[in-house]
Amino acid sequence: MNIEMTIEEVKAEIRKGARAILQVRHAERPKMDPDDPTFGDALHLTREGVRTAKLLGESLAEFSGDVAFASSPLTRARETADCIAEGMGLAGAPVPTDVKLGNESFFYEDPLRVVKLFKEMEFFNACFTYFREKKLPGLRDIGEAADDCERWLDEHSQGRRLFVVVTHDCYIAAFLNVRGAYGPGSRRDWVRFLDGGVTLIYPDGSRRYALVRAGLSHGICGVRKTKGVVFDFGGVMTTTTMPSRVRKVTDEFGIGWEDLERGFARYRRLMDGGFITIDEMYDLIWADADIDLPDEVRARILEEDYASFMENYRNLKTLEWMRSLKAAGFKIGILSNMSSLMAERFRKVFADFVALSDATVVSGEEGMFKPQKRIYDLLQRRIGLEPDELCFIDDVESNCEGARRSGWHAVRFVDNEQVERDFMERFG
Fold it and tell me: Regarding the domain delimited by 228-238+314-427, which CATH topology (the fold level of the hierarchy) does it fall under?
């Protein structure tokens, strides 16, 4: 019964004349104590939550001249609203709060009884039972509550083209369930779909309701336990992120480094995917730059390319962290863009890293490369976990985003202290 729209589709409807009331869940928070009667009132957003909320705001920036905001009073919701506003170029915009969007929801008769209900029945079972039965102890009749909620949304939207309301996933699900856009639902599709919901109001007064993928739900913490951590190679297991030793050779012979950077951007993934050899990659780079090198210089550059990612660049702090994660019960994966020839050296020089891995995927051996979805799917099948049970560690943001599009969590690696801190904040 799920009726689904993307943010782009919602924006298109607004451009055509509709007004949109966009209810979104708060962005990612750390794990919440299930016995907390405040529902985690004091929890702040994680860094990932801040990032995704600002990105949502950026995607809505064209409506910054005709938008209003409202939020649940809970800290993580207010911070989400502030980040969305900032992303829209409206930092410091007023964001009124209302307890009806928070712990005294339209759908609650007795919040403390609801806490007990969620604990007794388990959160998702309680929600799905409520959708079916329409009323449970501590909860109002779901239809009456949804009607009250809609009246409140209409009143507070101020007739704006866009009204952004930051609330909580269970309330959005209940509202959409009554309006025929979501349900009865399952724990699995809750993670997949439930970023938010939209009410589109057309000039003739008609309304349309839909689930919305707003980009906030891929990193929900605490819905399913994270059981696997997958590591990139270059820049994560190594202390270098580029063939730095190659530059010494090019500088020595007066070869412009910009020519190599352009060539790497154009051809390196083809080499990583096993579609061309490293020799052929460099041949294409030299041809594009109209550079003719002696064979001995070509050979030296090739060897330095290999060596810059291998010899003396082992990141022992990453190795120590992988060992501690393994000891704590996490499955370990390795997912890297590298040629099959480089993989032979990798397995020898980094044998102690590889020994910790429960599943390894090397692009050049599979004919695919990051950030293609199928390479993440292949690793996920090999490691035997669900996508949202996996967290990817990579120093390249586009590769992290590829993991997120595949349903994984991801933490971008900048340095060891940062990545371990961010991981612990989200999953520890």
Answer: Rossmann fold (3.40.50)
